[in-house]
Amino acid sequence: MENIVEVAIIGAGPYGLSLAAHLQAAGISLRIFGKPMNTWRDHMPKGMHLKSDGFASNLSAPDADSTLKAYCQARGLGYADKHRPVALQTFVAYADWFTARHVPMLEASNVIGLEQTAEGFRLTLEDGEVCLARQVVLAVGITSFNHTPEVLAALPRPALSHSFDHYEVSHFNGQEVIVVGAGASAIDTAVAIHEAGGKVRIVARAPSIVFHDAPAKPALIETLKRPPSGIGPGWLSFLCVHAPLLFHRLSEKKRLAIVKRHLGPAPGWFMRERTEGKIETVLGRAIAHAAMQDGRVRLTLSDGAMLEADHIVAATGYRPLLSKLAFLDAPLRAKIASLADTPVLARSFETSVPGLYAVGPLAANSFGPLMRFMAGAEFAAPHLAAHLVRRRTLERLLQRGRRKPAPRRAIALSASAR
Predict the structure, then answer these.
(1) Which of the residues in the chain have pLDDT under 50?
(2) Which run of H or of E encompasses 398?
(3) CB atoms near residue 234 (< 10 Å)
(4) Residue 215, number of CB atoms within 10 A of its CB
(5) Whole-angstrom distance, CA of residue 240 vs CA of residue 228
(6) If you write DSSP's letter for every residue of 37-72 in order, what string do you get?
């Protein structure tokens, strides 16, 4: 079919843009769909800073001049590989520049349907257009995966939101707000509301808020004990970053255990002084019950204490699950072999459905915690792009073999056989 592209990418976050940059450079015909950097642009508190260091905040491209460092240096913007937080507005501007340079074909339209066909896949866009592709890559990020605990889910929408819902928080000025959670999203959101004039309390099951360590030059022995990496210090993090294919070879049980336990919630070191002594915290207690009373939310905690607020923000993280991807056609979803509701992936990031791939958070149970961070795009994008290029080369060789005329001797033998 003449109008079928080789690859369609669903998602325009760090993984989708990075993969598109590598495929574009390799001459692979592709289409990429999604609002560019939607999570970062519209769903992070305005004015926040990235938790990841500058060296771990790159989008991936084949050339060496497309890093965040190169972008900042060319424009005279402050930058450091480590210990200098990257402003959200700087990162979004960098992503816009990267997109214009490497992914000009990006279509800011969402995919609302994906189904398998005899030739590959059919994608339906929100404007009704249909796209056909031989291969599809799910690079959906966290947009579809925000998680609200069941104990809060029954609260009416005006009284409950998720941290994903908030870029601007000035409307909380003068309100009493409880932020549930102890990770980066919880602290970033709570601080933003506090500084916008809201009265904030942080409630979490965790006994303490574990901030990242403040910048310091470690002794050599400490570096050997806990080597640095793009997702944090320590040998396990180091191996997860530098050996994701080795992680892929571990048993399912070990992979799931590491992904679940390694790198728990932790705000950036630079948020400590904006939190401690300024925002009330209620830690080490779970929420047992939540209900509306006289137009306000009343929470009952596990120790029997009660708290009231005008609004609850669930900064309770994200769960990347196949069942949350509403655009997946039911028969197609049923064909995808899964582990804990995430796709089982081959070394090439291919699912059990030939031609369907997944990168980013959906790939964490196969390739490790690295896939939960944008730094993972620097492995996933060139690795998957190289596989797709090899696949195209092999398919073309097979096509040429089928088109090549049979040798005269073979034709003569065939005629005599008839």
Answers:
(1) 1, 409-418
(2) helix 377-403
(3) 16
(4) 12
(5) 12
(6) THHHHHSS-TT-B-SS-GGG-PPP-SSTT-SHHHHH
Q: Pairing relation of β-strands 199-204 and 280-283?
A: parallel
The count of structural domains within the chain is 2
The tokens of 386 are what?
A: 């190289």
pLDDT of residue 118: 93
Residue among 415, 379, 347, 376 at smallest CA distance from 52 = 376
Reference 244, options 67, 378, 54; nearest CA is: 378
The residue with tokens 């797709």 is: 388
* 227 domain residue, yes or no: no
Whether 219 is covered by a domain: the verdict is: no
**Domain span including residue 129:** 4-145+318-400
Domain CATH number, residue 346: 3.50.50.60
- Are the beta carbons of 388 and 135 closer than 8 angstroms? yes
Nearest-5° Cα angle at 384, 396 to 38: 125
Largest Cα–Cα distance in the chain?
94
Angstrom distance (rounded) from CA 338 to CA 317: 21
Residue 116 lies in a domain: yes
- The tokens for 232 are 């944090």
